[in-house]
Design goal:
Helix content: 40-55%
CATH topology of the largest domain: Rossmann fold
Number of strands: 11
Distance between the termini: 44 Å
CATH class of the largest domain: Alpha Beta
Number of helices: 8
Number of domains: 2
CATH architecture of the largest domain: 3-Layer(aba) Sandwich
Order of helices and strands: EHEHEHEHEHEEEEHHHEE
Structural class: alpha/beta
Radius of gyration: 18 Å
Shape: elongated
Largest sheet: 5 strands, parallel
Low-confidence stretches: none
CATH superfamily of the largest domain: Response regulator
Strand order of the largest sheet: 2-1-3-4-5
Length: 229
C-alpha cells in the first residue's frame, strides 16, 4: 500500500528489522534514533502513522508524543520494553493511540497499524458530514472537527473528538466502556476500559470548568458515560 511511516527507536537492530518488514507494505519508511530527531521528522513531514519508543536519548518518547499532539493528530503507537500498566496509561495520557510491549511480533505490529489506519479512514468518512451540534454554549462542527465553547476554540485529539461527537450526537444515551471502545477504537482493539477512562479524563480537563462536577460529559456510576447539558 502507499503510505509514509516514521519508526523511532534507539536500538538500531529493531529499527532495521521494522523498516525491512514495513517497506513491504508502505512506500516510505523514515527512521529516527532519538527524540529530537523524531520531532524534527514529524514537524517536517506528513506521516500516516508513527511507531515511537518510550525510552529515547535526548528527548523521551512521551515528551515527543505530547509535543507532536500540539500540531498533529497522526496516529502514534508507543513501543515500550516495560510491561507495567503505568507506562501504557502514561502513553495514552500523552496522546498515543495504542501501545505494544517489547519483545513484539512484527505481524502483530502490522496488524495494529492496519487496524488504526482502518479506523481513521472510517472517522474521516464520518467527518465528511456537514453537521453542527449546538448544546448550551458548546458548538461541535462535525464537518471540520472543530470544537468551540463560548466561542473559544478547544483543541482535542482525534480520539477525544470522536468520543465527544458520539456522545453529543446521542444526548442522554449511556455508553458503557466496552461500547465506547468498540465504537471509537474498533472491534479489533485489544485495550480495555482504562483506555476510555484516560481519554475521558483528558477530555473533561479540556471542556469542563470543573472536571469533578462536569457540565457536559457525565458518569453513570457502574454503567458508563453520557452527554447532557
Amino acid at each position: 500500500m502507499a503510505g509514509r511511516v516514521l519508526v523511532v527507536d534507539d536500538e538500531k537492530m529493531i529499527v532495521k528489522g521494522l523498516k525491512f518488514s514495513l517497506m513491504q507494505d508502505y512506500s516510505v519508511v523514515d527512521c529516527a534514533y532519538d527524540g529530537e530527531e523524531a520531532l524534527e521528522y514529524a514537524k517536517n513531514n506528513e506521516y500516516d502513522i508513527i511507531l515511537l519508543d518510550i525510552m529515547l536519548p535526548k528527548l523521551d518518547g512521551l515528551s515527543v508524543c505530547q509535543q507532536i499532539r500540539e500540531f498533529s493528530d497522526v496516529p502514534i503507537i508507543m513501543l515500550t520494553a516495560k510491561g507495567d500498566d503505568m507506562d501504557k496509561i502514561l502513553g495514552l495520557e500523552y496522546g498515543a493511540d495504542d501501545y505494544i510491549t517489547k519483545p513484539f511480533n512484527i505481524l502483530e505490529v502490522k496488524a495494529r497499524m492496519k487496524a488504526i489506519l482502518r479506523r481513521n479512514a472510517v472517522t474521516e468518512k464520518k467527518a465528511a458530514k456537514n453537521n453542527i451540534i449546538n448544546a448550551g454554549d458548546m458548538k461541535i462542527d462535525c464537518d471540520s472537527r472543530n470544537l468551540y465553547i463560548a466561542g473559544r476554540p478547544i483543541n482535542l485529539t482525534a480520539k477525544e473528538f470522536d468520543l465527544l461527537e458520539l456522545l453529543a450526537v446521542n444526548p442522554g444515551k449511556v455508553y458503557s466502556r466496552d461500547n465506547l471502545l468498540k465504537a471509537v477504537w474498533g472491534q479489533d482493539y485489544s485495550g480495555d476500559g482504562r483506555t476510555v477512562d484516560v481519554h475521558m479524563r483528558r477530555l473533561r480537563e479540556k471542556i469542563e470548568d470543573n472536571p469533578s462536577e462536569p457540565k457536559y460529559v457525565h458518569t453513570k456510576w457502574g454503567v458508563g458515560y453520557y452527554f447532557n447539558v
